[in-house]
Amino acid sequence: MTRQASRILLLGGTGDALKLARGLDARHVYSLAGLARVPQDLACTVRVGGFGGSEGLVRYIADEGIGLVVDATHPYAARISANAAAASRMAYIPYWALRRAPWAPQVGDDWRFVDDWAELVAALAPFERPLFTLGREPLAHLHEIPSHQYWTIRCLDAHEGNERARVIDARGPFTQEGERRLFDACAIDVVLSKNSGGAATEAKLEVARERSLPIIMLQRPPLPDADRAFDDPAALAHALQTLS
C-alpha cells in the first residue's frame, strides 16, 4: 500500500459498509456513529462514536496516520459526509465515497416526494395506516399522531410505542413475502420511505406497487463531491484491495 493510503478510515453503519469492513485487515479502521450494532468479528479496528466535527476528524486523521477516508455511510447521513469531505481536504488525503443509486418510480407508481418532516406530515394527512421506514425520526413525534391515524414504525432500535403506534425493531434484508404479511397485519394504506436505494429494503416498494399503494418519498439531501465515487459496493471493494 502506498504512503498516501497507508491506513484506511471507513465510515460506515450500513450493510454495504459492513461488507467492505470484512475485507479490511488490522491496519485499518471501521468507524460507527454509535447507533448501529457493533460487529464483533472484524479483523480491522472498530471505532464507535463521533469525531467532533470536521476539525476533530482532521486531528484523528493526523493522530492515527490515516491516508484515505472512505465514506460508506447512509445516503441521508449528510452531515457526516460533509464533515468527512471537508476533513479530507484539510488533511490533504483522498476522500472516496459509496454513492448508492436511488430507487426510481416505475410506470404507474404513485410516489409523492417531500423535502422535510413538515411536508411529509401534510402529504400523510389523508391516510390512516401508514408504514414508516424513515429510521428514528418518527419516534420523536409519537405524541403528534392524529386521532384518525395508527402508525407502524420500523426502525433498527427497540422503542416503546403507544396507543396510536406500533414500533417494530428489524433489520433488512426484507423479503416480499414478509412485507406482504406486515402490510396485511397492519392494514397499511401508505408507505413512507427514504430513497435509500439498494436491494435490502426494496421489497416494501414492490409490495406497495402490487397493491397500488402510494409512497411518500423523502428526497435525498445533497452530498459532497468525492475524489472517487462508486455506485457499486463490489467495485469499491475491488479498488480498496488494489491498494494492498
TrEMBL record:
Check the record and name the PANTHER family matching this protein.
COBALT-PRECORRIN-6A REDUCTASE
The answer to keyword Oxidoreductase applying to this record is yes
The record's Pfam families line, in alphabetical order, gives: CbiJ
Q: Which GO terms describe its biological process?
A: cobalamin biosynthetic process
Q: Which UniProt keywords apply?
A: Cobalamin biosynthesis, Oxidoreductase
Q: Does the keyword Phosphoprotein apply?
A: no
* Protein's name in the database: Cobalt-precorrin-6A reductase
Signal peptide start and end residues? none
Q: Write down the NCBIfam families for this protein, in alphabetical order.
A: PRK08057.1-2, PRK08057.1-3
Task: Name the source organism.
Answer: Trinickia fusca
Listed GO MF terms: precorrin-6A reductase activity
The pathway where this protein functions is: Cofactor biosynthesis; adenosylcobalamin biosynthesis
The protein's Enzyme Commission number = 1.3.1.106
